[in-house]
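Consider this one:
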Amino acid sequence: MKKYRFKGILQNEGWIENATISVDDAGLISSISSESQNVEQVAGYALPGFQNAHSHAFQYAMAGIAERHQAGKEADDFWSWREAMYQLALTMSPDDLEAVATMLYAEMARHGYTQVAEFHYLHHDIDGKPYANLAEHGERLVSAAQKAGIKITLVPMFYQRGGFGLDPQPRQRRFISKTIEDYDKLLTASKQATSHYSGANLGYGVHSLRAATPDDFVRLLEEKRTIPFHIHIAEQLKEIEDSISYLKKRPVQWLLDNVNIDDNCHLVHATHLIEEEIKGIANSGANVVLCPSTEGNLGDGIFPLKQFQSLGGKWSIGTDSHIGLNPLEELRILDYGQRLTSHNRNTFTDKNENDSGTYAIKQSQITGRKAMGNTNIKYFAVGQPFDAVVYDANTALLAACSIDNLLSTIVYASDSTWVLGTMVDGKWVVKDQNHSQKEKITLKFKETIQKLKVR
């Protein structure tokens, strides 16, 4: 049994000041009280750990190095960036992937994420042949999460086609499952991979509408698995144009007309929507996963959040290509994009909540948990794992802050130096800005990147 006394802990109803959380040997909360004896004093405010609802771990190796643009050449956009990403995908061994993912997940933990949904499509060897263990890379991602001390929802992707009506390109050879039967075998192997770590579970999905035949897409969704379903959709204008040309409908329009999506579905990006599609997603109960730092970096566009929220739409956040790793930065970019386009400041509000910080945390937390397969809506509750990010109460703005303004001060005014530490299953994974395995993980990452020669 371990007891931690915080300056405050955040509950759904607001802050509890000077609160003690007792944690049993399994990392589950056994009590929340005002007890002050025989406790570890923590000069910080505990928020529930963040969920990163969209990650491509291998892309962390190229974060920040795709920013050289040649004058006079054709536009550098998502599609040219994708070619650079394909080249990276063709270089990594299982050991390389594990080293990069471990570093990434450790950095996620340092910024306050305690669980990640790994949207995983790097399945095969460099020649495009399946490994003897079909989930070799999935198993390495689970191992990386375990080493880094965070939880993972492994989401292996069905990636069958090279585009709408197109065969796969040679550069996509590591991604491909030719049939649903092949994908089912991969999914079964991936489930076995998650069994090696108690902090791992499974989701499923299709990379995008363009990555599967329409018939197989419908067939896969009709199986109605109870694990979370994830898909990229409507991220780029060219994707919209290609969908209209091939399917005779926009991507989200086709999705709404051909399958029954519900709150088990997580639509990543969904950047370019018309009014009918916005209403259709919200009315279906499906969730949107927004990745503002990556969407900005790639020039994707701005999701119509204000209208989506007005219809009761639910959203979570992810870091996608990992150009940014701070969850609060994702929330701020998301909010400020709406403020800049609407010329209003009340983006993160609804009829029940008028405090922007409170609303942002509620949306990202509860919908983010659904993306992981976790339906618990209580921030901290007896019997639940104690996963938390703790913000330094001695930071000048927090030390001088009233309790009413505390959460929005953290959401809008903080940077990563305010994070006192991150706890998973009641144990410090990061404390005083240092990950418990920082030196070992960083050394392996540096050696891997030097070998890959990608930076």
